[in-house]
Task: inverse folding
């Protein structure tokens, strides 16, 4: 007889948060795709980070520092906190899992926006929690009032907010985030996922500083161009960080990634250049939408949602683009499941997308008018 | 009020499986140490693996394949199984956590040898399980009969065997392992950690092949010299692998690590050379022990345990070596807590250890005879 998983794991349905571009390429018989579906940085890591990592590789035979001391000290300086306020993990996905495991007992409820970043939901279900959601607003933005009212009425153990939001790309302003956070019931943990914060520009999103009920997450996967390195961090009280220390995977973070992240963090002008180039690409996508008469959602990230006529149209468009060698994704939940979500690529990738998108729209319009 | 962790996590005592050499170096005010304490490969990764990783680094902005398809296919060919029999994780530590989370419900019991590889125990406690142990034999080797008798009598959910064992370095023969595995109660999962298997040489340790009640773990951290890359894999039935798929961190493995592991796996002659050099170093340590009149435990790994006069003597020796800039560890539990465990280094590292060890022993003997 096969050893049985725990009843709790047994009850988890089989699901995959994301089908990878490698699998999609295999599906359509291509070696590779134009990758505009996973919000990876088209501009790569800082050359200084690449050089630091290349120099470090011969010592890959050594374990990385399980305390990530050098990186945490640099991050503490950047954020004006102590290294005891920081935990480093193998991406925000890893840290979300750690949060859920630590704070959400089986059967307890986590509240978030329907359709937001699915890996949080994946961990809630995976650890036997219950998911409660409120709908986003019609324009794709998070409904802070609805989150707040539901949190106050029901007292969930965790409230999760991705800000800027993924997959919509929209942002909640600093005052709204602060209002939500301050109103949360005693004992509710606020998980603030700021993966895309480096693309926001000058819009203030939330005050810096460690707050007792909050875990803030930042990543090197987006503006720093280190998605493949799997490295991110969370900021919280020393009590919360010490609790993570009791159960986290101490040797989970790649040594070269730690060295690359440290170098990337120091290269501020490179990250600023990437953010500026992303802002230009975002404007280009908005202009493209205008030209093609396809509305776009407001974006403060490195991707833009194009709003098509229907959910079915959006799904067909993902397929039509894939056939043309272009990988994009679509949001899974209303009110924005009529969108395709397109990462800001390099200028040639943007041109390839624009051409394929226009062609696929034309093909469809021709069919519709035939 | 601070959000409270789950009662189960709250009950976990604060503990750290290993203090890192970086932290120890800071403690004694050194920039670095001769690293002979973490069983890292002194011979580094294959030059082909380094070259493949260096070439891959500019694309660190891409996520790695969450299915690790290329690597799993290569591993499947190596082991004569299907890729559906394989899950890739961020080191055996990660995979042990996944096993415990998947199979050991809070309160259920895992059985192993007292003092064996502590990260398994760490996860058992971290997930709210109960640990049961049997003692190792006087020579440091695992007591298969005791494990078998206890497993049959008590029906634990998991039996964990590191073979070769860490920290003793000893091995259980293929017939013994098979006898234990075949005798396990229905529903008991056998977790066989073969991290050091590549150093065993021609001694058969256990038949290849997928067995229903068994998860076998292999790593790229030891003979392949990729400890810092965090990449390992487990072999099991497709049913077990599919269960892992429901809850595992899909994007947890570094992209460059996957590419490095694939190249390292292909470079069989390099790994064979490393194993041969390790065997030479092991013989040298045994000869050193003989010269110094310090017994050594039988080793089938890349480390050797030197048996000192007492637990206190071993602990003092770890400190004395650290003061001399040499990092070694000592087993934490009897009957081998009177040992220091020393990784096979390069020939100059071995010489540095031999000199420091002899000196520290002399200092102690002088004190004793004064």
Result:
């Amino acid at each position: 007889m096969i050893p049985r998983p725990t009843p709790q794991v047994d009850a988890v349905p089989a699901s995959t948060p994301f089908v990878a571009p490698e699998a999609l390429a295999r599906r359509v018989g291509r070696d590779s795709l134009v990758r505009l579906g996973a919000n990876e940085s088209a501009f790569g890591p800082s050359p200084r980070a690449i050089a630091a990592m290349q120099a470090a590789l011969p010592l890959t035979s050594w374990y990385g520092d399980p305390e990530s001391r050098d990186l945490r000290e640099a991050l503490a300086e950047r954020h004006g906190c102590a290294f005891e306020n920081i935990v480093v993990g193998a991406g925000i996905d890893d840290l979300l899992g750690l949060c859920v495991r630590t704070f959400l007992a089986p059967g307890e409820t986590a509240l978030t926006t329907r359709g937001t970043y699915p890996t949080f939901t994946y961990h809630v279900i995976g650890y036997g929690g219950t998911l409660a959601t409120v709908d986003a607003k019609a324009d794709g933005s998070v409904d802070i009032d609805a989150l707040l009212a539901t949190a106050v009425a029901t007292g969930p153990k965790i409230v999760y907010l991705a800000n800027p939001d993924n997959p919509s790309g929209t942002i909640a302003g600093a005052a709204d985030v602060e209002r939500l956070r301050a109103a949360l019931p005693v004992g509710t943990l606020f998980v603030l996922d700021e993966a895309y914060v480096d693309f926001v520009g000058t819009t203030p999103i939330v005050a810096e500083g460690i707050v007792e009920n909050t875990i803030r997450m930042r990543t090197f996967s987006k503006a720093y161009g280190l998605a493949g390195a799997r490295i991110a961090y969370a900021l919280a009280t020393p009590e919360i960080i010490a609790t993570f220390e009791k159960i986290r995977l101490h040797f989970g973070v790649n040594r070269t990634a730690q060295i690359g992240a440290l170098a990337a963090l120091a290269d501020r002008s490179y990250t600023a250049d990437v953010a500026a180039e992303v802002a230009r690409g975002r404007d280009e996508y908005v202009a493209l939408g205008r030209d093609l008469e396809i509305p776009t959602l407001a974006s403060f990230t490195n991707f833009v949602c194009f709003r098509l006529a229907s959910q079915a149209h959006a799904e067909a468009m993902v397929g039509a683009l894939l056939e043309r060698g272009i990988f994009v994704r679509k949001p899974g939940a209303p009110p924005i499941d009529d969108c395709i979500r397109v990462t800001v690529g390099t200028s040639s990738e943007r041109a390839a997308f624009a051409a394929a998108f226009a062609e696929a729209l034309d093909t469809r319009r021709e069919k519709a008018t035939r």
The first helix of chain B runs from residue 7 to 10. The first strand of chain B starts at residue 34 and ends at 35. Chain B has two domains: 7-44+269-364, 47-268. The mean pLDDT of chain B is 95.
